[in-house]
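Appendix B: complex inputs.
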Amino acid sequence: MALDLFTERGYGQTSLREIAERLGLTKAALYYHFSSKDEIFMALHRRLHESLDATVAVLEDEDMTLGGWLALFERFVEKFPGNRKLILMHERNRTAFEKVHNEGHDQEHADIEEKLSAALRDPEIPVRERIRIGCAFSMMMGGLLFAGDGFQDVDADELTAEMKSALQDLLGAY
Amino acid sequence: MALDLFTERGYGQTSLREIAERLGLTKAALYYHFSSKDEIFMALHRRLHESLDATVAVLEDEDMTLGGWLALFERFVEKFPGNRKLILMHERNRTAFEKVHNEGHDQEHADIEEKLSAALRDPEIPVRERIRIGCAFSMMMGGLLFAGDGFQDVDADELTAEMKSALQDLLGAY
DNA sequence: GTCTATATTTCGATAGAC
DNA sequence: GTCTATCGAAATATAGAC
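Resulting structure:
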């Protein structure tokens, strides 16, 4: 599957030949289903968005506070089990996503990273809070790397609970 | 510079033509200084190791406890200002590094990620501690992404201090 | 829908002049 | 040390039969 190859080897190191091979098809067959390599990539991108946009929708409405970010991140963590592979692929291909994102003049989707990036550079928010929000986000996303790596023997619910606990220690201590 | 291109666009999406172009040279001139594209990549890898191996050397000696990891991460954070670009490049090219690392049967260097990976899957360590160590590490590495992105107006010392404070909240509350 | 070609481009790498 | 020129391999993508 393309998802696995992009995660293991990275987008730029994965060829259509490899993808087709793992699928038991030929390259030509892939072009019946997708018009380009980028489109395969973007299809996976869209799948993740469709799965998480409802969770992130609150960003449109609310003016986020520290507690608001905590609540959002906690909801995000709860969605991890069902989206682990997609998020992991995304995390391991940030450069490739940015490139396709820029070239394609991608439609304005309610992207959590855009709102986050805006908050992190917002001079209205105290520096300490901005740093904490950034730390919490990277902890949350990076935690996934280990969720598949070192924590395979750990119960999913326990992992979720511990991640929430860590988020609270980072954001809730005020 | 190759360092910038690998960081912006990723190793697999960067061609030698682009690197040479940004340097004001031709591809052929690059091959006088490096024997292959991989070697350019590994030269940057080695530069980071030479800069951080002294900090990580403690891993060889000690049997790490939770407090040991905290101390190590704090020292790591202090080394950030001088190694920001290299670490950022490393973080954004994990897949490419793993590939070169495997193919080249890279010499056993005291890599922090190997020791970390071992600790995360060590059944002797309580699950809660394993998760906290993983969270702290990803927070620390991911914090770099924002250090260059949203925190350009933040004083470097203040950022370091706040990162340490966050590390303590994650690892020191026991 | 999937195949066997094949076209086209780009890439990493080399040869040899200066 | 850097250049021009080029090679060979591999990649993306297409054409057309079945």
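Residues 25-26, 28-29, 32-33 of chain B lie near DNA strand D (CB under 10 Å from a C1').
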